[in-house]
DNA sequence: GCCGAATGCTTGAAGCCTAAAACATTATCT
DNA sequence: AGATAATGTTTTAGGCTTCAAGCATTCGGC
């Protein structure tokens, strides 16, 4: 029996379950994420990637290099070139050559950037509380634990495959 | 007390919890989604939006209009113009004027599209089973239920706000 | 000290995505 | 029937995203 035949024979039985779970997970995240994007645009005329970058820098007052940001934000390197250029043009972020490595550029919040982010961050936290407010504390902690398990499962699967 | 002051006074206490939950949800979904995108590219040289559009059409053999697709896929209308044009150029999809509404265009799979999607779909199902395979059946069904609750919570929050 | 490998970043091409404006057609209300 | 509103699609401008190619610098081994 060929590999393709094996796949087709085995698949219908056990895998629909996981697929439904994945689709639901994706729908949930997409719904919340779209709403957050919409509110960020409406309230602050900004975007989620901009907000995420500011959030990282806010947590690291000494600055981060583009490479460090790229890894933390799980986006490609080239992506950050444009994103940081836009934020610099808006005056929220400043770019300086790394003192220890002449290849690297460090990014940090300007004082304007810090102020702007503080407002956005407070609103964001409220929005999330609003969107997830329909869950009881017990449900939230159960979900939190199950997602930790999910993360582990996914990480193991991607690593053994690679 | 002003609204802003109320927000700031209440926020630090109760909302960190929901924020951590949201970040974990987002991380999980992003990890799995990136891996699926990577595998779709490696195995079939295609993308997730293309795959999603084919999946919708596969479920509706009589075809769907761009507007229906837009709603089901939760993406903007204008987005589908380009996406469907690319899939048509690749010969996977055919566009026909709606017989009942001269404004509308219906999309359906070509026979090539149906064959291509069947392969991709089988592989996709296996990948998801792989990525979520670390969860027990009990964990999966508990997660499934909690995500339903999450979806309801988010939907209520977006509707009452709008 | 020198050379090749690894690392940090930028650029370019292509695709995905949105919001808003424009256009065509259909539905509704008198 | 005629005006108005609603719906279906496309276009436009701008931003986000990736991959791959290229350049600059640093690191490791010799």
UniProtKB/TrEMBL annotation, chains A, B:
GO biological process, one term: response to stress
InterPro entries per record: HTH_MarR-typ, MarR/SlyA-like, Tscrpt_reg_MarR-type_CS, WH-like_DNA-bd_sf, WH_DNA-bd_sf
GO MF, one example: DNA-binding transcription factor activity
Sorted UniProt keywords: DNA-binding, Transcription, Transcription regulation
Protein name listed in UniProt: MarR family transcriptional regulator
Residues annotated as domain HTH marR-type: 18-152
PANTHER family xref list: HTH-TYPE TRANSCRIPTIONAL REPRESSOR YETL (PTHR33164:SF43), TRANSCRIPTIONAL REGULATOR, MARR FAMILY (PTHR33164)
Any single Pfam family the record assigns to this protein: MarR
């Amino acid at each position: 029996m060929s590999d393709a035949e094996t796949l087709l024979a085995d698949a219908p039985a056990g895998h629909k379950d996981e697929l439904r779970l994945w689709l639901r997970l994706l729908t949930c995240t997409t719904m919340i994420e779209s709403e957050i994007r919409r509110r960020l645009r409406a309230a602050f005329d900004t975007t989620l990637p901009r907000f995420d970058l500011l959030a990282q820098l806010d947590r690291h007052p000494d600055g981060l290099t583009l490479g460090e940001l790229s890894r933390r934000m799980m986006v490609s390197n080239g992506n950050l070139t444009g994103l940081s250029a836009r934020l610099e043009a808006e005056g929220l972020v400043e770019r300086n050559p790394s003192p220890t490595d002449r290849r690297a550029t460090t990014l940090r919040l300007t004082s304007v950037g810090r102020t702007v982010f503080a407002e956005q961050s407070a609103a964001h936290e409220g929005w999330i509380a609003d969107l997830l407010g329909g869950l009881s504390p017990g449900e939230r902690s159960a979900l939190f634990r199950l997602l930790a398990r999910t993360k582990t499962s996914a990480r193991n699967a991607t690593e053994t495959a690679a």
